């Protein structure tokens, strides 16, 4: 048992439902007790979905516990088939059905004989995988199912499209800025003269999946979801894939160069020419995107050497770390991810760009790390934003889990060249603005807030006398916490119980030395 | 709809394929209500994910609840439940020092048959903190019924009280040991004798309400010379009311049937069956019922109700003649429907997760007389509704307002049907005379929004064929 009240990645079935409900005309039936359909609320509220979320529960209640589901699950699938005529019904196990160990595959087999829809059982184990891994698996499972079906029916079309084309794999519902990223990717690919063959799962139709092999290559923008599918397609059809996330100027260029390489495997034969994107990259980097110019401008100079902490899913945390370190000259004290299953990859990506790497899904560990590092800004999830609030450190949200305010109506991609602009804005606005910073230092701050006692550490064995307290309150708000902690640290090291002004000065002197 | 008035209420039961919150959500309001408590939800990631998302910002306020997240080793019994729970509870005691730890059993603990009730007394003795066990799981209950299971469990632990007819009350301390599984024992002490009020019979109200609402209801009763001798739950666990033979109890919420049963059968209390104090009509009926059971004549109640209605006039003008459809998810539906009918609305359907006809008998009878008096058709009451069927019915009926969960609210709005999110009624202050306005504030919000956006011509916001 684990004591917890916050988790970064949700339970497995959420991943399955996110993939299933991203496809069009696919219905998911959860084998779950009453109240486990909270996914519908999230999708309806966060994504502001206009349509009913195609997820229903086959309710597990006392009767099911006593006698087994019997006809119930099959009936529910048959009913949904009649009501909405979905192309595919995905039976989704939950933590509850994992323990019940009913033969769900048997229900699926029975239902598929009586319904017009295809029926599959999502192959995820609640206790082994989390939301993101489950999404990855489910996507692969659906694709595999339809490729194999097409192969059996003999309508698998393996000829490539005339023009260069790509499948974008892994854009789905409730993903962090996925809709905007997808639009930006399509635009980028169009600039490169590449047609988008299919985007899956978001907005895709399952009966089109057999057309996937027509694309020249696959693009997997996020590490968490889509890699399994891309690997399957590579194994099956020799389709190559690009999995470099085009986030930030450097990696967008890297991604485009890899695309170029993939295309040139076919281009000399099919197009009678070699493709070269170097001039496009140069033009975009220097003049279209503003981010490269921004990093040269004097604004960004003020950020040099400032400390930041990064935490999020593997894709976003790694990319943002690289952007901060290489493209903006910011010092990343710690980069971390909650994707423990992908920890090795993450380490490899960021090890030269930060002082410390943290791989954990325990939010208190992250909070303590931030309190210790005392960065000028945090780039993390909603949880880190709240940690930042408590510690008085600004935070830019760069990754799921997120709240409704991260599902913006306006256009906010993180990928591609427009993404670089958005990220530059986000980073810049998260730090205290340069000139403001100097003025505060010179004039002793403009806020009159009381002494902050917020801190994540709970040991309060020190007392401040009234003089030192009033001295502390004169220190500008944004550094007060740090001064307070440094002083207390000094006092503790020297076995001092009461903090006076003299101790404060001594602590300051000691820290300067 | 035909104008014909059906003679009696009709009850139907559908498939139970409806959306509601998991009953563990009750920790959200109960941990705030019971200030010295700590709620430990013994469940899986699924439960945690629900709480984290449903409770939003509360998560970040260092709440007095947490998950005991079961891992594979717990499920397959490779780890010892007792030792695991002990480890977590010792830590909770050290960090928070609560007066009571409430274990919330979930679906998973049911299925793996984790003997929470068996372990609690043992662990309680070992760590010296009372442990109350409530099985608020989605296998058996819906949403607000979670509170019912917690209060029923707490009712067992309230101190015992013996009342001699007509005399002062005396609390008998059953057990000298403070931490024991027998009722929370207090030193023998006298309840403040209520010389000023005429009732000498102790009255305990049950149902968790915000402190201000509880004191508002208390003062309404006080003006009828009734003093409330305790609330279940009290603001602090250590102030739990004394219960026993001769104590009168009355519910303030419609979803507390288990608690009512426990109070009657196990604690020998006398239950006052009354409509619930929601809306001015309900509040008056509730007070009248209590008074009549306690043998007190009411004073000025009719005028008080009348005055409240007059203050609501602006709201009533907005909703009179409008129709409403309850999809059903929190068991407040019967009372709210009855109040809205009194306000002049027409109710097409009352969906409700679970209908206890005995506990809600007075409310149901009141609903029926209200329909008759207002000359509107009796609504159909649909127990364990099927949301899909309901949406088909709504397409036909085109109600002016659907009271529904968030899963359906946005899709219905996109199809031009006004919605009010039903969970808000659970969290808003809706009890008593004073808060009648708040109910109507909620109900009319979508209608007022419409008045503002009326002539823009974009009510239907889905493409054809969807």
UniProtKB/TrEMBL annotation, chain A:
Coiled coil: none annotated. It is found in: Plastid, Chloroplast. One of its GO terms (molecular function) is ATP binding. [4Fe-4S] cluster binds at residue 36. Substrate binds at residues 434-435. It comes from the Eukaryota. Binds 1 [4Fe-4S] cluster per heterodimer. The cluster is bound at the heterodimer interface by residues from both subunits. Residues 464-508 form the Light-independent protochlorophyllide reductase subunit B-like C-terminal domain. The active site is at 299 (proton donor). It catalyses: chlorophyllide a + oxidized 2[4Fe-4S]-[ferredoxin] + 2 ADP + 2 phosphate = protochlorophyllide a + reduced 2[4Fe-4S]-[ferredoxin] + 2 ATP + 2 H2O. Its cofactor is [4Fe-4S] cluster. InterPro entries: ChlB/BchB/BchZ, LI-POR_suB-like_C, Nase/OxRdtase_comp1, P-CP_red_C, Protochl_reductB, Protochlorophyllide_Rdtase. Pathway: Porphyrin-containing compound metabolism; chlorophyll biosynthesis (light-independent). One of its GO terms (cellular component) is chloroplast. Pfam families: Oxidored_nitro (PF00148), PCP_red (PF08369). Keywords: 4Fe-4S, ATP-binding, Chlorophyll biosynthesis, Chloroplast, Iron, Iron-sulfur, Metal-binding, Nucleotide-binding, Oxidoreductase, Photosynthesis, Plastid. Residues 12-431 form the Nitrogenase/oxidoreductase component domain. Its EC number is 1.3.7.7. GO terms for biological process: light-independent chlorophyll biosynthetic process; photosynthesis, dark reaction. HAMAP family: ChlB_BchB. Belongs to the ChlB/BchB/BchZ family. Protochlorophyllide reductase is composed of three subunits; ChlL, ChlN and ChlB. Forms a heterotetramer of two ChlB and two ChlN subunits. Component of the dark-operative protochlorophyllide reductase (DPOR) that uses Mg-ATP and reduced ferredoxin to reduce ring D of protochlorophyllide (Pchlide) to form chlorophyllide a (Chlide). This reaction is light-independent. The NB-protein (ChlN-ChlB) is the catalytic component of the complex. This is Light-independent protochlorophyllide reductase subunit B. It comes from Aneura pinguis. The gene is chlB.
From TrEMBL, chain B:
Its cofactor is [4Fe-4S] cluster. It comes from the Eukaryota. One of its GO terms (biological process) is photosynthesis, dark reaction. GO terms for cellular component: chloroplast. It catalyses: chlorophyllide a + oxidized 2[4Fe-4S]-[ferredoxin] + 2 ADP + 2 phosphate = protochlorophyllide a + reduced 2[4Fe-4S]-[ferredoxin] + 2 ATP + 2 H2O. Component of the dark-operative protochlorophyllide reductase (DPOR) that uses Mg-ATP and reduced ferredoxin to reduce ring D of protochlorophyllide (Pchlide) to form chlorophyllide a (Chlide). This reaction is light-independent. The NB-protein (ChlN-ChlB) is the catalytic component of the complex. This is Light-independent protochlorophyllide reductase subunit N. It comes from Aneura pinguis (Greasewort).
